Amino acid sequence: MKQQIAQIVNNLDPISLNEMDGVSLMKRTDTKFIIHQQQLIEVLKTITNQYKVLEINKNRLLTYSSLYFDTENKKFYHDHHNGKVNRTKVRMRKYMESNSCFLEIKQKDGKGKTTKSRIQIKDFETELSQNLVEFINSKTSEKFNLKPSIWNKFDRITLVNKHAMERLTIDLNLEFNMETSSKSYKNLAIIEVKQQRFDRTSPVVKSLKKIGINPYSMSKYCIGMTNIYPELKYNRFKRKIIKINKITA
Hints:
Elements: H1 2-10, E1 13-15, E2 27-36, H2 37-47, E3 51-54, E4 62-70, H3 75-81, E5 87-95, E6 100-108, E7 113-121, H4 130-140, E8 147-161, E9 166-178, E10 181-195, H5 203-210, H6 220-228, H7 238-248
């Protein structure tokens, strides 16, 4: 499947990081879909003329590595689990092909809007430096005592709509680990459509709809946490975990 996906993606027109600046969408609506990688192949075949693909150093399947932070009592995880509409995630993310690393803060409001703030750093820091603590405090208007909570890694394809203010990410080969615990989802594809507001006329949304795939809210962070920390309460995510396991079986 990986070879088939790569073959389709390699036939798309490329777009560079600099060219993507116009569709950075730091304030946006994110809409997720989860499918088996075999279904992804069929979807990609139907939208090849509508999108360009991000290419960095001749690579189109890009590797991302992330380190998430949370409080001692896992506040960010529990806020999501308990349905709090105003939520925060803090992570460091390294874009392996460009060898660039950022501390990123994602904040979701009660209207479904996501705001992302970030600052470039040299590399992963398992202990937050003072300037990063101050950056987090300034963006969240709160003071947290944050520690590393989970690592994750995945391969990503980023597509940019040729005709609309839209881009989408496709995450494959998702892995989580922390100390001696690990979990991977090899057959899963997570599609995330990023728009100023959700538009059902999007080529990829229409293609997914045709095969019966509707938007499905899920958090990679929360799913990973339930696997790495089995003692965490996860009632709210139980149905999502069952669905993901069924897709990847």
